[in-house]
Specification:
59% helix; 5 strands; Hypothetical protein af1432; 14 helices; five-stranded parallel beta sheet; 2 domains; 348 residues
Length: 348
């Protein structure tokens, strides 16, 4: 049932309005207030569907009451019809509309005009309520779908992370040195990316690719990987295949980042002296350049079957000696700063 609030400082006027509305709109409930302040309070508490508001009231007049009603988010949507004994001219109508009124009627009130205006305001209010309910329903649906999408994305991210762990563990079964190397290389590559202020998606991709950048070594015979002495040119040619092999292994996995290309390019060098394709400069992904620096520093500083660990300073010396020729200058500077300022170190 629709509720109409009448605000007028004269009780007689309210009696007339009540009788008129009861006769013309019996389906409506009539509320009443004798001042603007009281009307505002009732409007906030009862949320009527339409307000009939006298303009000429002592203290807070109808214009000010309208302004305050429309300034409050709780009462702003309620249509306001101004009722006044002043002349219904353009200036007065404009003043009412500027205050926020939705309609303006002169006294003495014409019954048919009042009913028509009230019905129009009630239809408007009903349409607003229907629209609000639909919007509330859409917002709830969007919230549900957003939550479902997030849960799905979280499950996908977990599955992807588990798949990467499985791949990394696969290498470990064949070459434990390589497995530990990938973990440490990934930690350093991530730190370098943060130091270089790479975007979060790039950081995620760099870390993901670095964790399995040597996955292609699964194709290399174990006796070559663990050989304590110097390897032959033929053996080295087999080792040079592992970046491309790694790219092929991860090709069936749909990553949000170019993980396969990062793996394929982590042994490329700026001057074109790397492998397997001899790429140079901007032909190499920035992420691959970051992984390359992390890869070299970890490899030189750590123990290998064919030599003892050479330490961090030897590793930093290698990348500094070849900054801008083999290794990306920004990645080199980031790496040397992290280690020499003791903001990064390899976990045992």
């Amino acid at each position: 049932m629709n509720r109409i609030l009448a605000i007028d400082d004269k009780a007689d006027n309210l009696v007339v309005l009540r009788a008129m509305m009861k006769m013309l709109l019996p389906e409506c409930v009539m509320l009443q207030a004798l001042s603007g302040e009281e009307g505002i309070r009732i409007a906030k508490e009862q949320r009527p569907d339409t307000i009939l508001l006298d303009v000429l009231m002592p203290g807070m007049d109808g214009y000010e009451t309208t302004r305050r009603l429309k300034a409050d988010p709780d009462t702003a949507p309620i249509p306001v019809i101004l009722l006044t004994a002043v002349e219904n001219n353009a200036a007065n109508r404009t003043a009412g509309l500027k205050a926020g009124a939705d309609a303006f009627l002169s006294k003495p009130i014409e019954e048919e005009e009042l009913v028509a205006q009230v019905r129009a305001m009630l239809r408007f209010r009903e349409s607003e309520n229907v629209l609000k309910n639909r919007m509330d329903g859409l917002e709830e649906l969007v919230a549900i779908r957003t939550r479902e999408l997030k849960e799905s994305a979280d499950r996908l991210a977990l599955t992807l992370d588990q798949a990467i762990s499985v791949l990394a563990n696969t290498v470990e079964t064949k070459d434990p040195y390589t497995a530990g190397h990938q973990v440490r290389c990934a930690a350093l590559a991530l730190a370098l990316g943060r130091e270089m202020r790479l975007a979060p998606p790039q950081l995620r991709g760099v870390h993901m690719a670095a964790r399995i950048h040597d996955i292609g070594k699964i194709k290399i015979p174990s006796e070559i990987l663990s050989k304590p002495g110097k390897i032959t040119p033929l053996e080295f040619s087999l080792i040079q295949e592992h970046p491309a092999v790694g790219e092929g292994i991860v090709a069936p996995i749909v990553f949000p980042w170019p993980v396969g290309r990062m793996i394929a390019q982590h042994h490329e060098r700026l001057d074109g002296a790397g492998y397997p394709q001899g790429l140079s400069g901007d032909e190499i992904l920035l992420e691959a350049k970051v992984i390359a620096v992390a890869d070299v520093v970890e490899a030189i500083s750590s123990y290998r079957p064919y030599r003892p660990a050479l330490g961090i300073e030897a590793a930093l010396g290698e990348i500094e000696a070849n900054i801008g020729t083999k290794y990306d200058p920004d990645a080199v500077r980031a790496c040397t700063s992290l280690f020499r300022e003791q903001r990064f170190w390899f976990d045992e």
